[in-house]
Amino acid sequence: MTLTTTHGEPPASAAGPVPGPPAAARRRKKLVPYWLLVPGILWLLVFFAAPLVYQASTSLQTGSLEEGFKLTWHFGTYADALSEYYPQFLRSVGYATAATVLCLVLGYPLAYLIAFRAGRWRNLLMILVIAPFFTSFLIRTLAWKTILSDGGIVVSTLDSLHVLGLTNALGITEGHRVLATPLAVVCGLTYNFLPFMILPLYTSLERIDSRLHEAAGDLYARPLTTFRKVTFPLSMPGVVAGTLLTFIPAAGDYINAELLGSTDQKMIGNVIQSQFLRVLDYPTAAALSFILMAAILALVTLYIRKSGTEELV
What is the mean pLDDT of residues 136-142? Predict the structure, then answer.
């Protein structure tokens, strides 16, 4: 029996398949995501790729500001810059590593508290974590000059507790002062980049299903075992992201070393800034910038692979 509509015509399904959109329309629809990428790609080309190529060209030039710089493909600038300023490179990596470790030690408990124990105070604590971003980076660093001043309460307390004797023995302070020492620079780096550690950690911890903790308790796991076997492994993406977001800008920072340190605590960022703006040796400054970028890229890649998160590379 043939099905008919109220007008005596067969239904659409009986008349054959409904033709889809033309091939040209389908191709245009597939290209839409790629067109949406065009503004971002143009932005990267103009403000990242082009300056990178220009700096690469500058690093291979020779000359002076009076005579002008010419592209001579002088790769020796890299070897000369590295041999002369390798102490600042090592110091930058050391300070950035120390600040990253301190940020992780301080930030993980706070992120854990906000994610699992804060309750109705969670939003307030998150605001307090983000609040320093509303103040200038420079002003926050200058505030630490007052906090760590020689006659301040911090130095007097550390001196009365005989902590400065231990830090002097470790070589991170000098005498009865903290300013213009490695400890001051690391403290400034830790404070300024601590939110970059807390936010990824909180995001990673907040996503952990609380039923996993309950299941661990049902299996008679102690709180420390639950943390070691469940919480920390599941929060590793946040740990990796937080350490990268902390280490990378800390290694290239120069504000903290400039304001809280002395000439003995200069980092490679201070050298690059001086070469660009004071010495006006543009090829050396550009070469140092590329060496720093390559070193950070190598260290980050090695760290990601060792941490078992190769998908981030």
Answer: 92
